[in-house]
Amino acid sequence: MIVAFSISPGTADETGSVSDAVAEVVRVVRASGLPNETNAMFTNIEGEWDEVMAVVKQAVEVCTAVSPRVSLVLKADIRPGFTGQLSAKVERVEERLR
């Protein structure tokens, strides 16, 4: 499965930024060892249901350490038997654009 998620603390630093907290979330995702990518709006992670959800839970816990309120947006593509789809889905679209 692929999960696209965004976690943001409900409180920001003195400049209005949430990048320190988001960096800690991304650190958790990268340390998981699961295939992942981060863009301006979401972090995508690929793996089995339990391992992906465990990473999302840990990421939320890291964020709650700096903010008493956390926002989580999550979208999942659940397709049993398929792996490597984080890049394969994009490649299939790019092929059709040629």
Summarize the structure.
Belongs to the UPF0045 family. The chain has 98 residues and is an alpha+beta fold.
What is the terminal-to-terminal distance? 27 Å
- Number of distinct beta strands: 4
Low-confidence stretches: none
What is the number of helices?
3
In what order do the strands lie side by side in the largest sheet? Answer: 2-3-1-4
CATH top level is: Alpha Beta
The averaged pLDDT comes out at: 94
Tell me the major beta sheet: 4 strands, antiparallel
Structural class: alpha+beta
- Write the CATH fold name: Alpha-Beta Plaits
How would you describe this protein?
With 98 residues, the chain is α+β, with helices and mostly antiparallel strands. It has a single domain, classed as Alpha-Beta Plaits, CATH 3.30.70. 43% of the residues lie in helices and 23% in strands. The protein contains three helices and four strands; from the N terminus they run E-H-E-E-H-E-H. The chain has helices spanning 19-31, 49-64, 85-97; strands at residues 2-9, 36-38, 43-46, 70-77. The protein has a four-stranded antiparallel sheet with strand order 2-3-1-4, covered by helices on one side. A hairpin with a 4-residue loop joins strand 2 and strand 3. The longest helix is centred in the middle third of the chain and has 16 residues, at 49-64.
